[in-house]
Design goal:
By secondary structure, this protein is α/β, with parallel strands linked by helices. It is built from 10 helices and 8 strands. An 8-stranded mixed sheet has the order 3-2-1-4-5-7-6-8, with helices on both faces. Strand 6 and strand 7 form a beta hairpin.
Length: 265
């Protein structure tokens, strides 16, 4: 199935912040509840250990994504505590503040917009994008990788979406999933209930965005192609898939590693 760029509503600059927050709140709730990224945590820890890195700079964080869970797992199950800095081009400050509070300060955030293609030099640490890399067309996606390499920072891309019927067909049920999840998404607000149940804008938006997310997710071969022009001596790339439940996590890891030269696996 050929990749199609299209657009997702919550990417658009004119899109209302309130609706964007409701969408990213749902996505964060889903990842924290279903925990599809659990199988990649040991691999992430392995890379962080190689780099002796204890700071994560999460890009395109939405409403904090899966980090409340992953940070806790790294600390308690992997014995590798990390500091996580949440960033986004459209910072959801209310969600970031909730995450910082729930994490007891282990998660912090940047209040101003952060461009993933030009991350401020003061934000040093291993960069991550969870279910976000597919939002970018190839030229911009490549620039995100170039920025990490040029600033000698590691980067990890993780996607559970996929261009397959196995993912597209369940996406058709997204409105029903939204109606089922919303009572458990915090904070409960009249606005969230109105736009979900009385006037079901949020279910319809997530229906579209969910289908598009799958249609524009990069395959491992396409990720490899993106890295071919982003080679540098001593910078290593790893690409693959890890099973998680009934699907697979597609991942791309890049990091500076001694003087072994560029390598794509």
């Amino acid at each position: 199935m050929r990749r199609v760029q299209l657009f997702e509503f919550h990417d658009l600059t004119w899109f209302p912040d309130g609706w964007r927050g409701m969408l990213t709140d749902l996505l964060s709730f889903f990842t924290l509840t279903v925990r599809p990224f659990d199988p990649v945590i040991p691999k992430l820890k392995d890379v962080l250990e190689k780099l002796n890195c204890r700071t994560i700079v999460d890009l395109c964080s939405g409403s904090s994504g899966p980090w409340l869970h992953i940070q806790r797992e790294l600390e308690e199950e992997e014995a590798y505590p990390v500091r996580v800095i949440l960033t986004d081009a459209f910072p959801n400050l209310a969600a970031f503040r909730r995450a910082a509070l729930l994490s007891k300060g282990r998660l912090s955030f940047v209040e101003k917009p952060v461009n993933a293609t030009n991350v401020p030099a003061c934000l040093t640490g291993f960069r991550t994008l969870f279910v976000a890399f597919h939002h970018f067309q190839p030229t911009i996606a490549k620039q995100i990788l170039i920025d990490a390499v040029s600033k000698n920072q590691g980067i990890g891309v993780f996607e559970y979406t996929e261009r397959s019927l196995g993912w597209l067909l369940p996406s058709l049920l997204a409105p029903f999933l939204v109606w089922a999840m919303t009572p458990f998404v915090k904070p409960t607000t009249l606005s969230r209930l109105f736009w979900t149940y009385l006037l079901p804008v949020i279910p319809l938006l997530l229906f579209w965005d969910g289908i598009v997310s799958n249609l524009r997710t990069y395959s491992p071969a396409e990720l490899k192609e993106l890295t071919l022009d982003v080679q540098r001596d001593g910078y290593r790339w790893e690409i693959g898939k890890i099973p998680t439940g009934s699907c697979k996590i597609t991942y791309l890891l890049g990091y500076p590693m001694g003087e072994s030269g560029p390598l794509v696996q």
